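As noted in the main text, all predictions were made from sequence alone. Below is one such record, for Phosphoribosyl-ATP pyrophosphatase.
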Amino acid sequence: MSEKEEMGLERLYRLVASRQGADPGSSYTASLYARGAAKIAQKVGEEAVELAIAAALEDRDDIISESADLLYHLAVLWADAGIDPTEIYAKLAQREGQSGLAEKAARKSGEEER
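Prediction:
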């Protein structure tokens, strides 16, 4: 697959992953890594809330902008946790064809067994 054909999320992931270990003064992404997993998680939460507000207000432009922000911070979180997007895609593929209600019930019963 050429770079042009590659999905935007995969390109984004590679870019943010390449910033790990970079000088925090030279890159916002590197500064997030330097601040640690808790700060990255906080930013994901903030962006998710901002997206939810934009959706509730039915503000199309803000939904697009906040979605981009959320995907960016999510890619940083994945890279920080050592998770490749292909692992997420595999989980989504595993759930394909399964009722959302059945999948949720299966997760819940698995939690009770722990």
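Residues 51 and 102 are 27 Å apart (CA to CA). The chain has a mean pLDDT of 89. These features were considered when defining construct boundaries for the mutagenesis experiments described in Section 2.9.
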